[in-house]
Amino acid sequence: MQQAVETLTFRTDGTGLHEITDEVAGWVCGTGIATGVLTLFCQHTSAGLLITENASSAVHRDLVRWFDAAAPEGPGYEHSTEGPDDMPAHIKAVLSGSTLSIPVAEGRMLLGTWQGVFIAEHREEPLTRSIAAHLLGD
Amino acid sequence: MQQAVETLTFRTDGTGLHEITDEVAGWVCGTGIATGVLTLFCQHTSAGLLITENASSAVHRDLVRWFDAAAPEGPGYEHSTEGPDDMPAHIKAVLSGSTLSIPVAEGRMLLGTWQGVFIAEHREEPLTRSIAAHLLGD
Amino acid sequence: MQQAVETLTFRTDGTGLHEITDEVAGWVCGTGIATGVLTLFCQHTSAGLLITENASSAVHRDLVRWFDAAAPEGPGYEHSTEGPDDMPAHIKAVLSGSTLSIPVAEGRMLLGTWQGVFIAEHREEPLTRSIAAHLLGD
């Protein structure tokens, strides 16, 4: 049994879903661990990690619109010092979640056919996002 | 230290919560691993995995009604080619989450007294759903 | 490779976010495991576990207000026998999630600078809450 841990960094491009499936799959493959469990952890409170359909970018746009309607910008927030998109981003990050656990077999994440791994970027400006990755297995 | 990995399949019966606690507990027991961590991963983007009360089916119906009100069917979605329940199902799946991590001791999941493990089926038709299960421990 | 498992208990103080970062960090440190993966699991269906900003209590109050607006108390629930705050708490617990997986290195959780670990208490009365903690690594 062995483990690997590394911080992967990504540059997002404003609000939206930023797919990281290929980068994560490459890292998993490079560890040489064939069977195990992968943990991904988003080290930010205004972005999240989620699994959704990887084929249709319309799904991604509909998801972003849903989040915008569920936690709209506006004057109703007590925490407003970091910009109008900040408190909505904290709410969306709680809803999208900070962490994913994905079983790995034969060196590959056991994703379904139509699944991809995404950073849900909830801020408006492009940002560098750190994802802590940990793989344990053999 | 050892690990077990298997894909468990379930037949859901339309929109609702489908309890899988007993099947998962049976699989955990059958691995012979007494202490460890269980990962469950839903390999679909229109269904989720969640923990909620196992005693009252009224709780399950209220949860389903809440999801329906939060992401209703309607003309407002760009992604509409797979049926009116498809894009709402993707949104609900993100909210309910794709993965659970549950500590195991003495061969049993450390669930609270009133907790059950459920597939949240967000599509209307009965479907076969695959849950990747991974247990690591000794 | 070794593992540690323990049930940590906390006393919440009514609806709100109850930070447990220091207690969890202390437990991780005490296991002597330097590198691994930490699983936290909330053994209740009316409270959750989440990661959010640790610096501004205004963020916490805004989050609580958002949850209250998203799942308000009212006459619309079928499950109403355990008090008006019970079914909203079950919904909020599903949204906030039951479980967290956090990579550990050098004996510390790999949290981002502004991240804390919180019990999201969704009931109104103070309660004792049990969090199952599991750490696997070496």
Helix content of chain A: 25-40%
Q: What does the average pLDDT of chain A come to?
A: 97
Radius of gyration of chain A: 16 Å
SS elements, strand count of chain A: 8
Describe what you observe in this structure.
The structure is a homotrimer. Chain A has about 140 residues and is of the alpha+beta class. Chain A is built from 3 helices and 8 strands, in the order E-E-H-E-E-H-H-E-E-E-E. Chain A has helices at about 20-30, 55-70, 85-95; strands at about 1-10, 15-20, 35-40, 45-55, 100-105, 110, 115-120, 130-135. In chain A, the strands form 2 sheets. Chain A has a 5-stranded antiparallel β-sheet with strand order 1-8-3-5-6, with helices on one face. Chain A has a 3-stranded antiparallel β-sheet with strand order 2-7-4, sandwiched between helices. The first copy, chain A, starts with a strand and ends with a strand. The relative contact order of chain A is 0.39. Chains A and C meet through strand 1, strand 3, helix 3, strand 5 and strand 8 of A and strand 4, helix 2 and strand 5 of C.
